[in-house]
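Appendix B. One record, verbatim.
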Amino acid sequence: MGFIMLIAGFTLLFFSGDWLVKSSIQIARYFRISTLVVGITVVAFGTSAPELIVSLKAVFDGVPDISVGNVVGSNIANIALVLGTVSIILPIKVKKKSIFFDWAVMMIASLLFYFFAQNNKLQFFEGVIFLVFISLYLIFSVYSSRRQMGKSGELIEKPSMKIIWAVALLVLAATGLYFGSKLLVEGAVIIAKGFNVSERVIGISVVAFGTSVPELATSVMAAVKKETDISIGNIIGSNIFNLLAILGVTSVLKTINISQVLISVDIWWMMGISALLMLALLPLKKGHISRWKGVLFVAIYAYYMILLFTH
């Protein structure tokens, strides 16, 4: 029963995340918002929405290890599994020099999370700091994008969907995210108890993979279309949202308890893989993630999963 609920949750989250992005882009076009701004805000939030709903659901259901494990595991999976897989399909050449700024924000957010977690919990005021941080980042990103749009003379596309249908699809996506997260969390808890596996392990592995599916789908499609900048931008943007927006919103609504093993082991893995990403991108002027680097990232992820389930 747990596996059926898990698969049903994965499926609902996958389609609902896709509907959320599509409907939000149509609404943004209706209000004549730049695609650059949409990419930084709507797409990054849309692909991170499953993590948000799952984390909130897990915390209020009394399984905080699934909530925090989901965020940490998703950030690890986004870089090591998703980006690794994408670069195996098509080596990634980084054209945006500003990617260093986004990476730096992700690392600062990771270090801030580690610092706040030292007392084994995230509290209201720490969540507020996270939300202020993400707000400033978004304001700066939108401002930079509008400046770039002005220089490039980008034309805003017309919506291909009537506003009423876009809103209806948005409501449908939100409903799907809620029920998908409910099935995913409940199914994961049943499996964890059935196999005597900790909720932390299930959260970091199975649940994190499920909520990273939208990033995987978006990035693979971008790679197929040879728009690799979108792949890496989406992944770093999603990781920033996971840390600042998801943990921020969740801890503002309810204090999150964090197990010591997450702090002493898993967060270090997350920060280590994030640091490895920058090493893989050097030198920035000729940033290139080749296929062998992609294989290395995927191998590191596989090794981490083996350690999780064997220890």
